[in-house]
Amino acid sequence: SSSSSSSSSSSSSSSTTSSSSSARSAVVVVIVGMAGSGKTTFVAGLQRHLREVCGKRVYTVNLDPAVVSLGYEPNIDIRDTVDYKKVMQHYRLGPNGAILTSLNLFATKFGDVLQLLEQRRATHDVILVDTPGQIEVFTWSASGTIILESLSASLPTCVCYVLDTPRCSRPVTLMSNMLYACSVLYKAKLPFLGCFNKVDVANHRLCQEWMVNYDAFQVRRPATHRSPILTHSLQHISDTDT
């Protein structure tokens, strides 16, 4: 009887462990943002923090074909598959067009990337995906849609939009970022996080206040040019929609 009870308990424990292991899955965080917002540096810092402070197992993917150097060692790198400079020469494209075309070419092989990520589902906690500064990849390009939809269909996925805090201290720049962020949000339809970067250079609290306080934004909005009139209208719509 004692032996039977022990065996039953062991079987139950094994079943529970197996169940929790199969249910466990790495979370994908896709880092997007305007050019120069510091996405790559952000990814390097976040990876280091997650590993050293939080004790998480992190897997990194670089999707920027034109980046010269990274502050981290990517596990998957688009540069190993697509030669950005050859794309420029072959298709006679400028820098931006070559980046978009490189992403389109890479998207046709994204199934191979998904297979690798699926294998890391239970062995890693977080998968960080670094992206190029050409935000149009995720606002209207087919490659961005394919990448986000493929990731979210296979793994829990969220989008982190990185904002350049010093630049966003100008109302027009902040509103431009908000429009791009909303565009990515509504197109991706995924959990979305806005992150103010470079807060060691400029305080982000003013930008936060502008995002939630229409009157505060109105006070700082310059009235000497026509573009702020559009900014004013967009902020009002954004505030109402929120």
From TrEMBL:
What are the subcellular locations of this protein? Cytoplasm; Nucleus
Entry annotated with the keyword Hydrolase: yes
Q: Which InterPro entries match?
A: AAA+_ATPase, Gpn, Gpn1/Npa3/XAB1, P-loop_NTPase
Q: Which GO MF terms are attached to this record?
A: GTP binding; GTPase activity
Domain AAA+ ATPase as annotated: residue spans: 25-169
Q: According to the UniProt record, what class of enzyme is this?
A: hydrolase
The keyword Nucleotide-binding appears for this protein = yes
Q: What is its EC number?
A: 3.6.5.-
Designated name of the protein: GPN-loop GTPase
Which organism's genome codes for this protein? Toxoplasma gondii ARI
Q: Which keywords does this Swiss-Prot/TrEMBL entry list?
A: Cytoplasm, GTP-binding, Hydrolase, Nucleotide-binding
Q: How does it assemble?
A: Binds to RNA polymerase II.
> Primary place of residence?
cytoplasm
Q: Name one GO cellular component term.
A: nucleus
Q: What family is this?
A: Belongs to the GPN-loop GTPase family.
